[in-house]
Amino acid sequence: MTTIKGVLFDFSGTLMRIESAESWLRAALDASGTDLDDAEIRRLAAALERAGALPGGSSPAELPGELADMWEIRDRDAAHHRALYTGLARQVPLPIPELYDALYERSMAADAWTPYPDAAEVLAQLHGRGIRIGVLSNIGWDLRPVLRAHGLDRHIDRFVLSYEHGVQKPDPKIFALACDALGLAPSDVLMVGDDRTADGAATALGCAYLPVDHLPAERRPDGLRPVLGLVGTAGQSADEERRTSHS
Length: 247
Description:
Elements: E1 6-9, E2 16-18, H1 21-32, H2 38-51, H3 68-72, H4 78-89, H5 98-107, E3 113-115, H6 119-128, E4 132-137, H7 144-149, E5 158-161, H8 162-165, H9 172-182, E6 189-193, E7 208-211, H10 226-230, H11 238-245
Parallel strand pairs: 1-4, 1-6, 4-5, 6-7
Antiparallel strand pairs: 2-3
Helix pairs in contact: 1-2, 1-5, 4-5
């Protein structure tokens, strides 16, 4: 049986969840000193959500033609990422133009993100077992400060972020980069993520894959915990670890 010696976690929808579109808009309005009544905030938030303007949120209900090409490469470059998401937000008329950049800045703030309830426990247990841990994310900005603010970075050995390498999942190259960063062969690595197309592509390289559901944090209290049943201590398979613990 193959021994899993390392685990790669996706970020958004896997380890952490972005806030709701309404919370996101309210924070940007507060940051810009803009007052709107509650009904208008709810209306604009719903329109922004339909536009797919919240990074880590819903995909656009209808992608504008002029942004279609950028959508496909949005996570390969920080400038593309910002241009794409501010461009999507601009499909919705807002009271002041400064709000579009304020919204994008908010999406990178630690307060905009909530860890899934079992994330800290799972990372800590894996770390304690000697398992190598990486974060492999399609993203256009540096997520390290967000994980640091929530106390999750202490258990993570390596970060492989698409915009830093100019390549994004499901390209096998980024999985190879991540396995190399952990110092492990793909057959020794488990990929965990909510996107069965992008994250699941790790299997083409020889990694194992565990899907999780992209749900609000409060609705997925233990989606990461199955990882612990698949991963033993370094140098042991999960079956071997169970036999040892019961001997």
